[in-house]
Amino acid sequence: MIDFNNLKTAFSDKSDADLNRAYLLFKSMSNPFVSKILTGLVQFSLKLHLPIKPIIKATVYKHFCGGETIQESQTTIDKLWQSRIGTILDFSAEGKESSNDFNRALEQTLASIEKAAVSDSIPFSVFKPTGLCRFSILEKLNNHTPLSADEKIEKKEYEARVDAICKLAFNKNVAVFIDAEESWIQDAIDSIAEEMMVKYNKQKPLIYNTIQLYRKDRIAYFNALLKRAENNYFIGIKLVRGAYHEQEIARAKANNYACPVHTIKVNTDTDYNAALELCIKNIKRIAVCAGTHNKESAQLLTELLEEHNLNKNDERIYFSQLLGMSDHISYNLSVANYNVSKYVPYGPVRDLLPYLIRRAKENTSIAGQMGRELSNIIAEKQRRKNA
Ligand SMILES: Cc1cc2nc3c(=O)[nH]c(=O)nc-3n(C[C@H](O)[C@H](O)[C@H](O)COP(=O)(O)OP(=O)(O)OC[C@H]3O[C@@H](n4cnc5c(N)ncnc54)[C@H](O)[C@@H]3O)c2cc1C
Hints:
Low-confidence stretches: none
Strand order of the largest sheet: 1-2-3-4-5-6-7-8
Helix content: 55-70%
Distance between the termini: 25 Å
Bound molecules: flavin-adenine dinucleotide
Radius of gyration: 20 Å
Number of strands: 8
Structural class: alpha/beta
Largest sheet: 8 strands, parallel, barrel
Order of helices and strands: HHHHHHEHEHHEHEHEHHEHEHEHH
Mean pLDDT: 94
Strand content: 5-15%
Number of helices: 17
Shape: globular
């Protein structure tokens, strides 16, 4: 059993000042009223071009992000690697809609692959399809809606960007994750992800699609994927529960269609754990990254490795968390010799705001992350005081 309650290990590279900053941050985020006011104020101030960037950068950004550039993220990469935790550089500018922005995201992802190719501390690269293409195009592709002549050009450009990333990943022998997004564009994402797996995963799993287990249909999807891949190509898979739960439910309600996601938490948990078992049972054809902050799922994966006589640091199996979250999982797994990595978002402060606001929302829910993060920080502060 991994002792995820070992907070001394979990916070070993955090100074008292780091802990105090994290405490203040999670304490403010945990109060829905304060959190709402603060996020509103930040958005408003940035719109008015008030000089609040230094404040954001020294607080919430410092906790959850690596830096504005890959170079600026080096301190974080090195610090994580001292604890044998790898970095996944994630250029997190979201909600962009111009081809300049898409080309910038492409360049950043290519640069992150080049860097990963020469750094032991960077085991994966990642991109979000909406970082490379307009959302509405992906939606049309998803629904097989006919495209205009201009849209057809955009589609080609998007496909060329995805292929350029996967091709470089293949040439440099770097694994790359394709993030999962809203269900109403996900078929389009799955389709290009599988195309890339067919093309580049012939010898080993380098291209990873993501499966969101809050979706009711994903175990069936996974089984079908296993069949399609059999004897054809290796599967790379990142398993997550899913980040768009509220939006999925609200959209299904508003448009009067069957809700695609579980609404009972334990059903999501059951499917997540079933997917972990499917991965390990089929490990000859699969490489898996468990993207989770859930202790029980992380524990289950360690048990599955033991049951199947797999090495703790088998290169096909990774655990992954987000920077600034669930260090009790990352650091305790890493000292026990499992493969661990963290998403390290980077990019201009203003562009990372949607990402930061999502983290704030996630940490506001009493039942969710807040309980975990804040209570661990409080317990560690107390432990240090007693020591
Ligand atoms: C490395 C990494 C990569 C990620 N990549 C992606 C990605 O590509 N796409 C993406 O969407 N997300 C991604 N995420 C975010 C991820 O989906 C959330 O962090 C995750 O859902 C939080 O769940 P958890 O596994 O930590 O477990 P928990 O904290 O135990 O579960 C919380 C999750 O359970 C689900 N849930 C909550 N309430 C209910 C309910 N009432 N009924 C049913 N289900 C419920 C939701 O998905 C919620 O996020 C990633 C996370 C990590 C760590």
